[in-house]
Sequence to fold (437 residues):
Amino acid sequence: MTDGTAVSSPAAALEGEGRSTHRLRQVVAWVLVVLVSLLVSLSVVTVWSVRILSNTDHYVATMAPIARNATITNAIANRATTYLFDQGDATEKIAGVLPKRASSLAPVISDGLRTYTYRTVAQVLQSGRFADLWDAANRRLHTHLVDFLTGKKLPRVEQARSIAVNLTPVLIMAIDTLDAHGITTFDPVKSHLQKGRELSFTLANNAQVRKARSAFRLANEIGWALPLITVGLAVAGVAIAVNRRKMLVRLAAGASIVLVLFIAALALARSFFVDHAGNVDPSVTRSLWDIVIRYLKDDFYAILLISLLVLLAALLAGPSWWAMAARRGAIGGIGWAGSKLAALRPKSSGEMAPRWVTGVVVHSTLLRAGGLIVAGGVIVLGGSLSVTEVWVTVLVLAAYLVLLECLFAWARRIRTSVAEGTSSGSEVAGTDSVPRP
Fold:
């Protein structure tokens, strides 16, 4: 018994050590699942922020719809019209021109002139000239805005209080248009504007700017490090996990859940942003938020789509009955399509399989990987793709992979049929060469 005990003790120790290592790997894997699930969503935010701050073209494209949004341009037209009438004293001027008996018509004529002025300003805003001025201004000011948002350089106090649109060029263009139609009431206002008196339209107030500045500064400091760390932790988690397929399922499911929560949080943040609009028109604030955040929302939906596809692929690779049935159905369908394609090619004994057929079979893995790499590169490096564009990319990849599998099945059928034809031809030739008695 002493000998038996001495022999079994090392084995028991090794078994206990194996169980301890197994539990440790499971704990580490679950910690990485939680960590990666959170970091995926945070990485989406940091990448979006860094692209806005580091790429002028992307920033201009993000801000461009502000000058083309009907809600914002209508509010700007209303603000500009009110300013012109407040500064121009249009009603008093009209009353001074009219006869005394008709002076009571001054308010009516003034209202008509206000409507006409509003339409003129709106036409200027919608003509494309204002949009071009807005894009050019954003391109010029991008560097200064980045310094402001990241805290590198503090602008003047009056510039730091809000984000506003300079309406002076719009007013001057509108007054020139009115002059061309014989309405010179606002010419004194034009001279004041040309002497340096500016009119601005506030898009975001001081409280909103402070919140945005803090968020952008933090995201800029983190930069691309967070996405790289997230990818590294995900790879490490799959490598450490006892069951790698299950680990992939957990990572994809966790990331999908957190992404949905972040998308819901964006809706709450929108309400918070609007509630702190102060004197700014809430409809303008909502439009501003939707415009600036639209690429971030698209990024969230795109990564959510990828996570769900990874989750589905990992589940289909599992041992469940429905996964095996789905794989059998897919393989059977591809094999059937390949056999139908192979049947279209006539067989001839002794024929050699074309070289490209052999190449397709040999390099099948490379062709699959190439499609995945290209699709992944389009999604990751293609800029701010919309959800529709991501869907199209994924569908094109799926069609490419299905066609590849059909091609592989067809090529294998050809090789098999050629090999069988060559083998039967050799047997026949061998039989005929035997001399008859």
User: Anything to note?
Assistant: The first helix runs from residue 2 to 54. The chain has three domains: 11-54+212-316, 56-204, 321-424. The two ends are 78 Å apart (CA to CA). The longest strand covers residues 200-204.
